[in-house]
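The record is passed on directly below:
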Amino acid sequence: MDSEKKSEFAEAAEPLMKWLEENCHPHTEAMVGCTHARLVEDVLMFKTEKYIECCSGTKADVKVWGFPCKEEEEIVEFSTAQETHRLGQKYKCGGEIGTLDEIYEDEIHLYLDVTDDDSQGVAMSRDDFERDWERCDREE
């Protein structure tokens, strides 16, 4: 694909990306074809890379089929000057309550408790998390 087509694609995609940001939660995607457009969202995800063979069965710092084969250590907690945050802890911000679901080097994912049978996730930077969310499951 030449650079002109790449530029046209980016120009066409940006309005839809903006619309998604303004109208949907972070786990919503648009899938567009020549005759249709679909709005989809994740309901459940389980991720594993244990069946991806790399470099004769070893995990190496290469990519196969677009997937990284380097085993990454799962981050289960991170500390700030104020406290240590761990997976599974509950936090509140305004009227929302969320459970700390995933921790990455530069991002936090909370699973929001919307109703008893429905919830959704939200992703944010660690700085935004520290500024806006207060732990609410402390044992007294």
